[in-house]
Design brief:
- It contains five helices and eight strands.
- The chain is of the alpha+beta class.
- The chain has one domain: Sandwich (Jelly Rolls), CATH 2.60.120.
């Protein structure tokens, strides 16, 4: 197994302002080159289903381990949730755009969220995820997470699970796995992503410079 489940289990749960944990070395740094090779070449912003741009074998294995029953059990135990029957939806992101990172609590179709960051050493001031105490002040945060390679963030989605980050434009890679409330909601969201991907491909063909946005 590539992911460090023991590190996840050993990491204390923070309950203020909502249930969350940050695992700095959930994925070992020796995989940096393999992940860089196998991560999909996505030069546009937004979230994509893995099947829209299939990853190489190492990233595919990481996704499989994140979606596994073993990981599900660990998340359920840590967050105090019953995740049986809650299907996963996995998406990937390669680039951050200026409007990304606005404060939000995550969509109500989600029960829990995992973010696995796959960036090199993070230097810019923006793009650091903030666990927020409220929904109207980005400076009122309980924790700030640098999206360095191998760092995992996991949190329970609820009305006050506010988070966001300061603006950043450029490469910002992560895999996101969501446990969804039911299959119908998961399928509807997956369909939305497929439609969005088709639109982005058409827009990129018609406006080749749009990929730099």
């Amino acid at each position: 197994m590539l992911i460090d489940l023991q590190a996840y289990r050993d990491t204390p749960l923070n309950t203020v302002p909502y249930s969350h944990l940050v695992v700095p070395r959930f994925l070992p740094s020796v995989l940096r080159n393999d992940v860089a090779r196998d991560f999909p070449r996505l030069d546009v912003g937004g979230l994509f289903l893995p099947e829209s741009s299939p990853p190489g074998p190492i990233v595919a294995q990481i996704i499989g381990e994140l979606e596994s029953d073993t990981m599900r059990d660990a998340v359920a135990e840590k967050l105090g949730l019953d995740l049986a029957g809650h299907p996963t939806l996995t998406t990937i992101r390669s680039r951050c755009q200026a409007h990304d990172g606005r404060i939000h609590p995550d969509a109500t179709f989600k029960v829990a969220t995992m973010l696995l960051y796959l960036n090199e050493n993070w230097m810019p001031g923006g793009g650091r995820l903030r666990i927020l105490n409220s929904g109207d002040n980005l400076e009122d945060y309980a924790a700030e997470v640098t999206p360095d390679f191998g760092t995992l963030v996991c949190f329970r989605v609820q009305a006050n699970s506010w988070h966001g980050h300061k603006p950043f434009v450029g490469p910002r890679r992560y895999i996101m796995v969501n446990y969804c409330r039911d299959a119908a909601l998961r399928d509807a969201e997956a369909k939305r992503h497929l439609v969005s991907t088709r639109f982005k491909k058409i827009r990129r063909f018609l406006l080749p410079h749009a990929s730099a946005a």
